[in-house]
Amino acid sequence: MYAIVKTGGKQYKVAEGDKLNIEKLDAQVGDTVALEAICIVDGDKVEADPAKAAKVEVIAEVLEQFKGEKAIVFKFKKRKNYKRKNGHRQLLTRVEIKSIGAAKKKAAKKEEPAKEAVEEKTVEAAVEADEAVEGDVQFCSKCGAKNAADAEFCNKCGAKLG
Hints:
Elements: E1 2-7, E2 10-15, E3 19-23, E4 32-42, E5 45-47, H1 50-53, E6 56-77, E7 82-103, H2 123-128, E8 137-139, E9 146-148
C-alpha cells in the first residue's frame, strides 16, 4: 500500500516505513504530523479522487530538522561586468511514515439553526421589474424610464432627475 501526499508545494510517493526529506514543518523532533493524501493505492484498489483520499490519514513522525545542501545562485550578464554569487540552504524536515490508511475521525458538527433567506427587494430592483413600489415613482424626462422617488439620477441613462 502506498499513497501520494502533498506537502510544501510538492508531491511525494510514500509507503509505511519510508523516510523522506520535506520542506520545513513547524513541529518538534518526535512529534507526529498528518500529511494530506491526494491518492491512495491499496493493491488492486486505487482511490485517485483527492476529496475521498483526503479522508484517509497519512501519519508521519518528525525525525530531525536540518538544512539541505548549499545551492549556488550565480547571476551573470555578458559584456557588462555583472557577476553575483550567492548561496542558499533550504530548511528541511526528515520524517518517517508510520501509518497509511487510518480513517480520520469526524468532528461532531454543531447543528446550526437554518438561516431563513429573507428576500428584500430594493426599490431599484422593483422599478426594473415593473412592479408596484411603495411611495412615488419618478419618470426620466430624457428616456422615460421609471425610477425610485428618492433617486437622484436615472437608473437607465444616468440623467439627473428633478
